[in-house]
Amino acid sequence: MTQSPLDRIRRTLGGETTLEGVIEAMGKEREEQVVERLGEFSAQVVVIVHKLQDVVDRFAADRYDELEASAREMDALESEADTTKEAILDRLSLGGVFPMNSADLARLVGSMDSIANLAAGAADRIAMRRLTLPSRMNELLRALTQADIDAVETLARAVVAMSTDLREALRIAVTVDKMESAADDIFAELYHDMFEWDTDYKTFHQLKAIIERLESIADRCSQNAELVRHMALEYLDTK
């Protein structure tokens, strides 16, 4: 009876069980490569959100020429991150056996990308037109941006830990909620001050768009952390 290529591979490797072990090992190796690239992508997103702090600082100081340069730098960084994102998604699209769910990995990539998009969008909105805020509101904007940085840095650490220690990834991911709560508190203060501030309609809505985008960054970090927790728990159960 003619043997199929798969049967011949089974016989060479020593049987069904050994073959399954080899396939599982290959899948694990490919998964580790994807998770490693995901860690690199997360680091790029962190850099983008850090650059947003430069934009906010220059906005608060009315340094608009420098602000526009920072916004352009963010656009360039986002383009570089997009290249990494596409490489990861291309690798996932090739298929194969991944111990982690490839759909979850793809969803995590897409959600991390949305953080970069929100940061770049906030920078574009900040640079849209000149306006001068009260000093307290400028300080709250800086504090909200720092809360975003804290959240995305912590999320990135959780993503990196997924390649080495799922329990550590789970532990780190849980702490992202605290950063998101801190961002919510600052956002509430800013929102209150915005309604108390006597300004024109256009300025009001520009500021509203800015602070909502900044607050959305921390929200998205929290959502990503929930996905990391889900993946870590699910994968721990299968080990």
Can you put this structure into words, describing what you see?
- The model is unreliable at 15-27 (pLDDT under 50).
- It is globular, with a radius of gyration of 22 Å.
- The chain starts with a helix and ends with a helix.
- The protein contains 7 helices and no strands.
- It has one domain: Phosphate transport system protein phou homolog 2, domain 2 (Methane Monooxygenase Hydroxylase, Chain G, domain 1, Up-down Bundle).
- With 239 residues, the protein is mainly alpha-helical.
- Helix 2 (16-60) runs antiparallel to helix 3 (64-93) and helix 2 packs parallel to helix 4.
- Helix content is 86%, strand content 0%.
- The relative contact order is 0.13.
Topology:
Blueprint: H1 5-13, H2 16-60, H3 64-93, H4 102-126, H5 135-161, H6 166-196, H7 201-238
Helix pairs in contact: 2-3, 2-4, 2-5, 3-4, 4-7, 5-6, 5-7, 6-7
Summarize this entry quickly.
With 239 residues, this protein is an all-alpha fold. Helix content is 86%, strand content 0%.
